[in-house]
Amino acid sequence: xxxxxxxxxxxxxxxxxxxxxxxxxxxxxxxxxxxxxxxxxxxxxxxxxxxxxxxxxxxxxxxxxxxxxxxxxxxxxxxxxxxxxxxxxxxxxxxxxxxxxxxxxxxxxxxxxxxxxxxxxxxxxxxxxxxxxxxxxxxxxxxxxxxxxxxxxxxxxxxxxxxxxxxxxxxxxxxxxxxxxxxxxxxxxxxxxxxxxxxxxxxxxxxxxxxxxxxxxxxxxxxxxxxxxxxxxxxxxxxxxxxxxxxxxxxxxxxxxxxxxxxxxxxxxxxxxxxxxxxxxxxxxxxxxxxxxxxxxxxxxxxxxxxxxxxxxxxxxxxxxxxxxxxxxxxxxxxxxxxxxxxxxxxxxxxxxxxxxxxxxxxxxxxxxxxxxxxxxxxxxxxxxxxxxxxxxxxxxxxxxxxxxxxxxxxxxxxxxxxxxxxxxxxxxxxxxxxxxxxxxxxxxxxxxxxxxxxxxxxxxxxxxxxxxxxxxxxxxxxxxxxxxxxxxxxxxxxxxxxxxxxxxxxxxxxxxxxxxxxxxxxxxxxxxxxxxxxxxxxxxxxxxxxxxxxxxxxxxxxxxxxxxxxxxxxxxxxxxxxxxxxxxxxxxxxxxxxxxxxxxxxxxxxxxxxxxxxxxxxxxxxxxxxxxxxxxxxxxxxxxxxxxxxxxxxxxxxxxxxxxxxxxxxxxxxxxxxxxxxxxxxxxxxxxxxxxxxxxxxxxxxxxxxxxxxxxxxxxxxxxxxxxxxxxxxxxxxxxxxxxxxxxxxxxxxxxxxxxxxxxxxxxxxxxxxxxxxxxxxxxxxxxxxxxxxxxxxxxxxxxxxxxxxxxxxxxxxxxxxxxxxxxxxxxxxxxxxxxxxxxxxxxxxxxxxxxxxxxxxxxxxxxxxxxxxxxxxxxxxxxxxxxxxxxxxxxxxxxxxxxxxxxxxxxxxxxxxxxxxxxxxxxxxxxxxxxxxxxxxxxxxxxxxxxxxxxxxxxxxxxxxxxxxxxxxxxxxxxxxxxxxxxxxxxxxxxxxxxxxxxxxxxxxxxxxxxxxxxxxxxxxxxxxxxxxxxxxxxxxxxxxxxxxxxxxxxxxxxxxxxxxxxxxxxxxxxxxxxxxxxxxxxxxxxxxxxxxxxxxxxxxxxxxxxxxxxxxxxxxxxxxxxxxxxxxxxxxxxxxxx
Length: 1141
Hints:
Blueprint: E1 2-5, E2 9-13, E3 30-33, H1 37-43, E4 46-49, H2 59-67, H3 73-87, H4 92-98, H5 123-133, E5 138-143, E6 146-150, H6 152-160, E7 176-180, H7 184-193, E8 198-203, E9 216-222, E10 247-253, E11 256-263, E12 268-275, H8 277-286, E13 291-295, H9 315-321, E14 327-329, H10 335-345, E15 354-355, H11 369-374, H12 386-390, H13 398-408, H14 413-428, E16 433-434, H15 441-449, H16 455-473, H17 475-483, H18 485-492, H19 498-515, H20 534-541, H21 554-584, E17 593-599, E18 604-610, H22 623-628, E19 630-631, E20 644-646, H23 648-680, H24 683-709, E21 715-717, E22 734-739, E23 754-758, E24 761-765, H25 772-788, E25 796-800, E26 804-808, H26 821-835, E27 840-844, H27 853-870, E28 873-877, E29 893-903, E30 906-915, H28 923-929, H29 934-947, H30 987-1019, E31 1034-1036, E32 1040-1041, E33 1051-1056, E34 1061-1067, H31 1070-1078, E35 1087-1092, H32 1096-1109, E36 1116-1117
Helix pairs in contact: 4-6, 13-24, 14-17, 14-24, 15-23, 15-24, 16-17, 16-19, 16-24, 18-24, 19-23, 21-23, 30-32
């Protein structure tokens, strides 16, 4: 047994090498506290001293205690925290490094090893000071061209970042590892991917005095979901920014489970109470979080479930948490969690977090885990993914995440109605729509807060606000914009007035336009010279030119231009005569060589040559310049090579040029960071605007895909409030006509449609493979989509706004919790019946199939009676036919079945819903179809007929209630359609180009309208000419796309190129055709004109007509040859029933 002492604590536990060799005497006065639960039983107690001096011993021990003097209770708990992580390391090289750790300080350094000194003033001591500020983050310290880590942090780098330790595995030195500067991003990605936060320490750049240590500072942090952004303002590339990962706190209250989410990046938190265990686990499964904290209220156990009694109630929750890192906390679940977050991220106490919780009153319950997985809202192998059916394949990222969040957390009726009204307007929009720039809110907040937004990000921000303004100026899109305000409020927790949004977006657009060089603007031309390599000026000046408008850096710009001219002059005077001399010298082999080159690594322009020294100095041209040459040296004063030369004049000009460039770059960074500071005051507006565009893009994409799949908008009904204005009355019923499985494409005719008129609870029977499970999934998906305001896979639908939608399918056992599959099923059923109300939709597939038949049948019957009494809508499917012999007390339950049909003497499923009971299971046929040997099937049939055949139809007369599906025939040809599986000009020049494009567009529009209108009048009967609708050309701007109303509609379009050439085409997929054209090089910003016509034949004829006649009007076509490949007759088209718009 050893005693370990620090300034305020003594620990006693068995031999532990990392805390050994310290004192054995016991303290005089102490108070106890509880360490990490992982070590509580293993290491005994930890005592905190109240006296400052408690120990005496040798000088050696005193020195060690002095090193430990900085440790307090938190410091010791941080060491224990790191030791837990070290015990999880598995790589052999890491395990060897672990043997050299000494857990007496936060770095884990053994001061007795080589380079292990923690003496004040050393680099290790400096690193320890930084580590003490963020004790639970991996610390990377910039040392020259490397980022280094020592001790515990070095072990983490070796284990998770794939780096090799410095010095190999020498046992006489402390663990050290690191990565080159160029590999920092990859190293940070590896660490954050494994759940670690990283603190990065940078060196102060610039010259230092001899024998003095460079100053260092904490430049930033990288957390899971929050990347390192230091220096981003000075580069010309973007940074992938993942969705932020919250800190999660889980607690228990009288209303149920509560989850609190804290986003350090956004400085926000939200709370959701009253959750079931299944809904809570669903949120944990779909939320990538940084840290998990469990509140001590979870330890209160009343269920007596296996193993969970030690930790709290809820075996499913424990099974989810046991495999993850978590910590316990106590006190107020919100305020204490916020304190934990501030401690975790090293935030000051005065930092405040904004509550973005949106009231859950009248909002449906979140989906349970079973429901979410069984309809594919959460991806699961073998289950069709609902998300993939709602959005087109090219709509991913933030819009997809929004749709998934809506499905998992259905909105209140008011928001769902608003979403549906918005989608209906989107479906009928005829104008072009913006691209909808999607920017992560967390990225906006972090870059503006840290003042690291670069010119690329400012251009993206301007796109966001400009698209908001574009929507506001358009009458069709303006109405959509106003409707999107409330869904955006729910998504962000920000309540912003519409007029405020528009005015602030206008201010932001003007502010950025006045500062940033936007796309197409180029008032900062790169310097050029006929002597100096162009790559030199490009590399040196691209770091600051083209970022802000020249008017803001005019002085610095002129200094750089003057310095560039001086450099060109110096190179011309000192190097060019030598080059001319060399060229004038002729030699058959091995003659003199020389050229002016750009030394990229040294950022210099030097002369490179050999054998150019004259053998006899005769005063010929170039000799004077050769005398002035000297060897080129690098930044450290070392000679670069034998062939590189420079002169004092060139070096002086290079120095002045670099100084001018550095001054200009500093000014640009100052302006960019100043703009970040100004926009930070508008960050809530920018977050709101960016989120609104994400929602708009998601809904437009959904409408486009829904129209392609021929889905419809349901009628969403709101249950009336009772007189007390608190509870709602029961729902009136749900009716879905032509319901098809959501994973089938109705446009391809590959689905069996069903009509579901549900006014009560259905007790459903049917054969194996008869479609019971598919029907339940389809109904669940349709009800959920309707409750969210989305389109549904049906011909028409009336869907109530349910307070909860619960689907239970198959159950598996849970060995971790000691539960059989039947126990898990009963646990899920318990959650369903406890949450069900008369406004709920309950769908249970094959109830009680995990236990013996007789008692399972009785349990199922009792559950059906309870659901019937509650009055909810739903379906309970079963193969337990004995349930129809039970004396059930039900009033709101009807019997439904999946139909079968006799074909060639065999019974086959029709997958159609019908009234009655189906006792045919098709078990033998199913087993045979899946490859069970024929001998087994035959023997099974013999056993069945000998024992069970007489029990199929009991003696009791139940003809009034039963209609045997096997005796029912269907006319397959009666129209029911049953099938099996079945994106160097100045301002004046740019404006001129814009005006030219506008003129071209108007001219083309006028010509197209005249030509096509005349042709249509010829095709129509003269007496119906007055009824002919005029052709209306719709423009699609450079950053716009066609509306969803063009999906599946024949269109004729004209592509307008910047070179004043046009292309005429026709398509039934305008969105796809526009996207395909813009994918070609140099055509990303082309614009279009289009008009819709009734039918592809007419579209082809008008296309040919335009190709042949537009050149006669002076237009240049790129596809004029296409007009010769089409030959259509002149017969009149039957257009009376169609219209042109």
